[in-house]
Amino acid sequence: MYEDKTVAVIDYRAGGEIIENLKKLNIHVVTTRRHDTLSEPVNGHPDMVMFKDESSGIIVCPEEYNYYEECLQPFNIKILKGCNELGNKYPGNIRYNGVLNGNVFFHKVDSTDARILDMMKGRNIKCINVNQGYTKCSTVTLGSGGIITSDAGIMKAAVEEGFDALLISSGYIGLDGYDYGFIGGSTGFVDNTLYFTGRIDKHPDCREIMRFLYEKGIETVFLSNKCIYDLGTIIFLKQGEECEK
Q1: For residues 199 and 245, is the Cβ–Cβ distance under 8 A?
Q2: CA angle, corner 240, sides to 239 and 244, nearest 5?
Q3: Residue 30: what are its φ and ψ, rounded to 5°?
Q4: Residue 85 DSSP class
Q5: Number of other residues whose CB lies within 10 A of the CB of residue 177
Q6: Nearest to 169 by CA among 102, 215, 231, 228
Q7: Edge to edge, what strands does the sheet with 147-149 contain?
Q8: What are the residue boundaries of the DUF6873 domain, all occurrences included (predicted)?
Q9: CA distance 208 to 98
Q10: Which residues pair with 196 in a beta bridge?
Q11: What does the pLDDT profile of the chain (245 residues) look like in tens digits?
Q12: Could you give the CA distance from residue 114 to residue 102 in angstroms, rounded to a whole number?
């Protein structure tokens, strides 16, 4: 059993520099595995196969449940099996790509995994429907610090719910096989620190992003010296209670 450990779930294709820098920060790294139903560019993206809930546990698609149960067992991280398997096309591939920030859940709700929706209902979490089904990909969640997104619809919904939100330009983030990746998929947030997969110097909104984070008192870590790249969110988990089934 590990004690007081932060775990980072990250795409199996993440570069050695990123993984080594996480380890230097005393963060245990769990890599995803290839999910053949998903398209090649995103078949290792954590935010496509799992949803992080408020208790620092995860809801995982049924196909990947046993893998993550084994990987995360030493950390007593709560892991629940989702109801819906993933499809290979939109919207069947977005079941677990919702965003929970505080007491509000954002997603294309008619495509959300049933267990996630049951959890939201049980906790009296407000569910807000947005058109962008790749909601987590598109969104940096900062808890009470608000959100950063490149999607105008998510931005509008977040502001209407009282969140401080920053809208940034689309693009300028790498993702092989697509024109560009997304800011949410290129970052991970834990302990008041936002981790970037790479540098954001070439993003036209770099200054606005850094100013927004500075004003919120949020620290930043750049895990590589390469340009920022979409790895499907670095999902940080804290050692928690015994696993539920």
Answers
A1: no
A2: 130
A3: -115, 120
A4: P
A5: 9
A6: 228
A7: 139-141, 147-149, 165-167
A8: 9-235
A9: 25
A10: 187, 222
A11: 455 689 999 999 998 999 999 999 999 999 999 999 999 999 999 999 999 987 658 999 999 999 999 999 999 999 999 999 999 999 999 999 999 999 999 999 999 999 999 999 999 999 999 999 999 999 999 988 899 999 999 999 999 999 999 999 999 999 999 999 999 999 999 999 999 999 999 999 999 999 999 999 999 999 999 999 999 999 999 987 444 44
A12: 20
Task: With 0.90 as the threshold, say if the pTM is over it.
Answer: yes
Task: Please report the domains of the chain, with CATH numbers, ordered by start residue.
Answer: 6-238 (3.75.10.10)
Helix (H, G, I), strand (E, B) or coil at 217: coil
HSE toward the beta carbon, residue 207, CA cutoff 13 A: 1
- Gap between the Cα atoms of 132 and 102, Å rounded: 19
For 24, 128, 220, 242, the CA distances from 105, given in Å and listed in that order, are: 33, 6, 25, 25
Task: Tell the residue number behind the tokens 């059993």, with chain if given.
Answer: 1
C-alpha distances (whole Å) from 236 to each of 122, 174, 203 are 24, 21, 24
d(CA 9, CA 12): 9
